[in-house]
């Protein structure tokens, strides 16, 4: 009888330990899947940026900014969505009525990091005049991003001239 109880205890312990090992593997797969999903979601910010710039859609551009974001362009700093919106609506080259620019980015120049609910996004904007097919501007954009209420948004961006 003692021997049966001992064997039963060993079996229960063995099953318990194997169950723990399995959940660890599932947790690792789940964490990896979440990481990949986060990288993809952050990458979408770059795609939205270029779509907004190519279509002069200020509302779409503003959809990727956190309410308290900052945007540094040269020596100017814009703080909050109202100031950032004003910059895009009235000063940013791609959004000006006289410019017909398409915005692209070389995929190999995109860099993304993620650590929990924070990350970074770097890309370059290559603006091409639709009429002449000539490159009119190349700008780098270096962002801090954060997951806010389940959405990835830009919290800080620094724009600077770049070379191809």
Structure description:
This protein has 164 residues and is of the alpha+beta class. The chain has a single domain (2-161), classed as Nuclear Transport Factor 2, Chain: A, CATH 3.10.450. 43% of the residues lie in helices and 36% in strands. It has helices at 2-55, 58-62, 80-90, and strands spanning 65-73, 76-79, 101-104, 111-115, 118-129, 135-148, 151-161. Strands 1, 2, 3, 4, 5, 6 and 7 form a seven-stranded mixed β-sheet that branches. Strand 1 (65-73) and strand 2 form a beta hairpin. The protein is globular, with a radius of gyration of 24 Å.
List the helices and strands and how they pair.
Layout: H1 2-55, H2 58-62, E1 65-73, E2 76-79, H3 80-90, E3 101-104, E4 111-115, E5 118-129, E6 135-148, E7 151-161
Question: What is this structure, in a nutshell?
Answer:
It is built from three helices and seven strands. The chain has helices spanning 2-55, 58-62, 80-90; strands spanning 65-73, 76-79, 101-104, 111-115, 118-129, 135-148, 151-161.
Q: Total number of β-strand segments?
A: 7
Number of structural domains? 1
Helix content: 40-55%
What share of residues are in beta strands? 35-45%
Number of helices: 3
Q: What top-tier CATH class fits best? A: Alpha Beta
Protein structure class: alpha+beta
Give the overall silhouette. Answer: globular
Q: What does the largest sheet look like?
A: 7 strands, mixed
Whole-number mean pLDDT: 88
Ends: how far apart? 80 Å
Provide the gyration radius in Å.
Answer: 24 Å
């Amino acid at each position: 009888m003692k021997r049966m109880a001992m064997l039963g205890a060993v079996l229960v312990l063995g099953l318990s330990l194997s169950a723990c090992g399995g959940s660890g593997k599932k947790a690792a797969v789940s964490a990896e899947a979440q990481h990949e999903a986060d990288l993809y979601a952050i990458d979408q910010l770059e795609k939205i940026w270029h779509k907004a710039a190519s279509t002069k859609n200020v509302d779409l551009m503003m959809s990727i900014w956190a309410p308290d974001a900052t945007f540094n362009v040269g020596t100017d700093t814009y703080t909050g969505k109202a100031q950032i919106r004003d910059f895009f609506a009235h000063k940013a080259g791609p959004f000006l009525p006289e410019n017909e620019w398409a915005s692209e980015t070389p995929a190999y120049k995109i860099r993304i990091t993620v650590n929990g609910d924070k990350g970074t996004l770097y890309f370059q904007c290559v603006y091409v005049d639709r009429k002449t097919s000539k490159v009119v501007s190349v700008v780098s954009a270096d962002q801090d991003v954060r997951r806010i209420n389940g959405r990835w948004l830009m919290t800080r961006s620094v724009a600077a001239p770049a070379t191809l």
